């Protein structure tokens, strides 16, 4: 299999988007929730701040630590996406393309917001 620059670009964007989806986005909080303890603290202004700490032991601790680290999750997501692309290109290509387009759109949105807020 020949990997072109376009393949690497699309795979990179799709890994970026899926990693952000798993680690930060509200829509996937249900995936993260079982692996974290929610800590509520009141700040100096009397506002409640919520912190999420990985569970203390077992497999939940492992996944909590994994999901709290963008870089760690990114390595595993990259391994899964590249493996899927190599083993099942027909099935994984549409998903990779969708994630890559969403990833590129998030970059464009960040640039647009920068100029709007300026």
Write the layout of secondary structure elements.
Layout: H1 5-23, H2 29-32, E1 36-42, E2 48-54, H3 58-67, H4 70-87, H5 89-117
Antiparallel strand pairs: 1-2
Question: Would you tell me the structural class of the helices and strands?
Answer: mainly alpha
Tally of separate helices: 5
Count the domains.
1
Main β-sheet: number of strands, strand sense, barrel status? 2 strands, antiparallel
Shape type: flat
If you average the pLDDT, what whole number results? 94
* Fraction in helix: 55-70%
H/E element order: HHEEHHH
User: What is the beta-strand fraction?
Assistant: 5-15%
> What is the first-to-last residue Cα distance?
46 Å
Q: Unreliable runs, pLDDT <50, ≥5 residues? A: none
**Could you tell me the number of beta strands?**
2
The strands making up the biggest β-sheet line up spatially as 1-2
Radius of gyration in whole Å, from Cα? 18 Å
Descriptive report:
The chain is mostly helical. It has one domain (5-117). 68% of the residues lie in helices and 12% in strands. Helix 1 crosses helix 4 and helix 1 packs across helix 5 (89-117). The mean pLDDT is 94.
Quick synopsis:
This protein is mainly alpha-helical and 118 residues long.
List keywords for this structure.
single chain, 118 residues, mainly alpha, two-stranded antiparallel sheet, 5 helices, 68% helix
């Amino acid at each position: 299999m020949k990997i072109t620059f376009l393949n690497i670009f699309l795979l990179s964007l799709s890994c970026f988007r899926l990693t952000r989806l798993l680690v930060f986005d509200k829509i996937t909080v249900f995936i993260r929730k079982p692996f974290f303890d929610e800590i509520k603290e009141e700040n100096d202004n009397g506002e409640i701040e919520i912190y999420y700490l990985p569970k203390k032991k077992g497999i939940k601790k492992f996944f909590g630590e994994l999901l709290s680290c963008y870089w760690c999750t990114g390595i595993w997501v990259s391994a899964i996406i590249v493996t899927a692309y190599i083993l099942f290109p027909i099935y994984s290509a549409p998903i990779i393309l969708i994630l890559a387009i969403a990833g590129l759109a998030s970059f464009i949105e960040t640039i647009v917001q920068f100029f709007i807020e300026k």
